[in-house]
Amino acid sequence: AGVVCAGNSSSGVVRLVAGPHLCAGRVEVLHEGRWGSVCDRGWDLSDAQVVCHQVGCGRALSALGGARFGRGSGQVWLSDLTCAGSERHLGQCPAPPWGSNTCGHQWDAAVECAGVPRCAQTLSGAPRCA
To answer: Closest Cα partner for 27 from 16, 41, 40?
Structure first.
């Protein structure tokens, strides 16, 4: 199970996967129709705050690195994010161009958020409401 949240464009849709509950997990982003991960290089609580807000999970408790919730697959889309923490979605955060980093999946970023989404669609397609 995980949470999927749409951004305002095809780049920046976010999901949390492989975590212990819906509001914690590896951060994955959709870009050009493909899911990929975020590198933990420069990953901090401000970046995590944007993700937690975007998926409706309240404030960020921690910004985790080192593939804490397992290694993703596919492209590592983003690294060196410099979010202020107030952006509405990850795609608004300053960062190098999508896919331009040399990170491997051993450095996949993750978050742990404080809340539980009011009502979210799980990755299996079934709605799950708090």
So the answer is: 16
Domain range for 47 is 3-129
> What domain count does the chain have?
1
Answer yes or no: is pLDDT of 129 > 60.
no
Beta strands per DSSP E along the chain: 3-5, 13-17, 24-31, 34-38, 60-64, 76-78, 110-113, 119-121, 127-129
| CATH at residue 47 | 3.10.250.10
Token couple for 14: 């976010």
- Give the predicted TM-score (pTM) of the model: 0.81
Question: pLDDT per residue over 35-79, tens digit each?
Answer: 999 999 999 999 999 999 999 999 999 999 999 999 999 899 999
Residue (of 98, 96, 122) closest to 29 by Cα position: 98
* C-alpha–C-alpha distance, residues 23 and 4, integer Å: 11
